[in-house]
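Replying to the earlier thread about multi-chain prediction with a worked example.

Input:
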Amino acid sequence: MNKEFFPNPVIEMEKVTVMLGHNVVLKDIDLIVNNGDYLGLIGKNGSGKTTLLKTILGIYKAKSGTILVNGKPVTSKTYKEIGYVPQMHPVQREFPATVYDVVEMGLYRYGANNVNVGNGSLIVGDPVILALHKVKMERFKNRPIGHLSGGEQQKVLIAQALVRNPDILLLDEPTSALDFTMVRDLLSLLKTLNEKYEITLIVIQHNLEMLIPVCNRLVMIRGIKMYDGPPQIEKANEMIQKVFT
Amino acid sequence: MSLWDKLLNFFTALFRRPFSNNILVRPIFAAIIIGVVCSIVGVFMVLRGLIFFGNGIAHSAFAGGALGLLLGINILYPVSIFALITALGIGYIREKTKLSNETSIGILFALTMALGIIFISLYNNYNVSVSSLLFGSLSSVNLEELLLTLGFAIVIVITMVIMGKWLYFSTFDEELAQANGIPTRLISYIFLVIVALTVIMGIRVVGIILIMAFVVTPAAAAYQYTYDIKKMVVYSVIISFFCAIAAFPISYVLEISASATIVVLLTIVFIFSMAFSPKRRKHSIPEIDSHLCNVCEEAIGDSYCMYCEMEDTEESPETATQDHEHVDEHHHVHDHSQHGGHHHE
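Result:
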């Protein structure tokens, strides 16, 4: 890939191949993600989208190739710098955890990264409340997580991913199983995170009509990278014809 | 002798010389220790859906105990080996074959029970030793067993304290915990070993039939009262503690098994908790002008907000607004910080 187009790379993947068991799931993936990108990642089921995210996180090891996150090779501690929102699982209605507890879980392994305010001082405050504020959920902090709607639970999981102040956020199908209004609400929130808080986003999403207007870059994979470019509906549709048929 | 006289006798015997080889004190201490430890481990077993797993371990321990009787050795060793192999075996089968917990437990459960029956058949002397394997022998616990129980309890509680938060996170969502750097596989195996140790600790004193009631019932009762995991653990321990203490005078007066009495008391507490659980309070359908909790803005029909656990929220709307403004200040600082870049620890 031409690195001149990416002056501020936060993720650099070069010739990355990933095997799960005996299966090659990703082959020779080249991908550079620029700081501030809102990257939509699409592909049919089983095409390796989730594997790609987990490889960036360091959960899956690449068989070959190099991956750099913020200029450093991926290690088992890379997730300190990346927020991850997995596919949503149903939460037991009576599970003993409030919204606050769930967001706080993100700090169990490592504390919050400090945010420099430019004059040498650091933000003082409860990182859980700050994260909940970013997703406009601070007033729900005492609610049991199982009592929230699917969209609200998804926002809490995003707050959990944000609680360590990461520069990069990976989201695996955040809008699946949500109704139209909740999807619109969530996409608007992601746009705010991207523009206002300058968080680089990689979002797996199936609904192209809702993804294309908000992202600035579209990547389509099917084991290999099929498309990487601007989010144009015509090109995307052309690739979909190739990928899905 | 009237029931009252028997009760008086019990307390006279208990407090005459409580620390001088008193045969009442040791069982009470053993019951409290086992009850408290089981209730802590039980909270996570209930939340992780591992009750059937615990039963599987208890039955494999029965096979170990039967082998111990057959060979004429201390049953602690074969019980420990069988329980630990079964616990780790279930975890390994689940991980390698992707079979559900129930399937792998079902396979090993049947195998260990079959082995237990074979060992008992070969032993050919079904007597009080076999009976104590099934129902325990709380009233005849000796000092060595009490100290051993205490040793197991210390190891289990320390391990639970050390890994409690990580265990809680991986219980909530294993994938999410893994993505946040929690070693979920290790935590899962350690917890399986903890369950096995809990069964090994309790089997000699309360038996395989009743041990699971010590684990499940107080946790299930505590589950009815709160959405806070710490409170759930504390309530579970309190329920176990008081049931263990209350059971002894009752069992003494009625001349019945103490461990069985504890289980009955725990079950009564559970039924009471289920019936009067705050989680099952009926909430009236919120009306347009219904009272709103000032903290979480949930519409509450009466003066109780179940989410904030407050009878009447005292925080005024003005205070709530100030809080939001306070957050906005941080927010403003944060916005500014984005231009300065992030500084990672």
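Chain B has a mean pLDDT of 79.

Feel free to reuse this layout for your own posts.
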